[in-house]
Amino acid sequence: MKAPSYRPVVAMAGLTACSGCQLTFLNCETELPELARRFAISYFPLAVTAHAASGPIDISFIEGAVSTPDDLELLLKIRSMSRFLVAFGTCALWGGVAAMNNHESRKSMVEAVYGKTAGGMKTFNPQPFANFVKVDFAITGCPPEKSELLATLAAFLKGSFPVFPRYPVCTECRNRENRCLLIEDNEICLGPLIQAGCNARCPAVGIICEGCRGPVTEANVAAELELLLEKGFTREEIERRMRRFYPEWDYEQRS
Question: Considering the entire predicted model, what is its pTM?
């Protein structure tokens, strides 16, 4: 990647999501003036009204899962006019909370929320971006860490993408000398399976890791499943917890 010699054009958009990932950008309050000086924001509906997506765009950050034809249309449109596309947040990268019940009937779930008359709604199982388009980079998290967004933008100005941690949250827990909620307190903590980068924020205050940053590379799901079964948790309870942020873990193959 070559470092841009001009003020790069940035887009920020959301599909089926809560908008929390986009808010990460707005939460960079101290850095916003510098970001505005170094980047041209061409499309950001959450922050600027009356703007339609138009290219060319140097780097686009898109959050959310793809769950409707409109989602897919917007994703394809922005992809087509963007030099680089970043899957921004866990939903964009893995499907996230929106996809946690993809193994159940979509029709029955829609009817449970909207009633029998909603059978004709144009929706499908929420899916990550990589099922439809090329993804050039990803920032995981629900929501992503502000520091990782800033690191990505800074690296882009220099013609590269940053390297984020590839080890599990447990490593950060050990570095902070936290009490192990999984081994010592017998709780369903997903720290051994989940990508670090949050500085073990939740376990540090006694809250189990829910898995919001998605799976670490080569996560040993079978070992975690076996350990939790030995501790008396039901397989259904364990799988539901694991599916919360990464719905497509293949438990039959991994256990």
Answer: 0.89
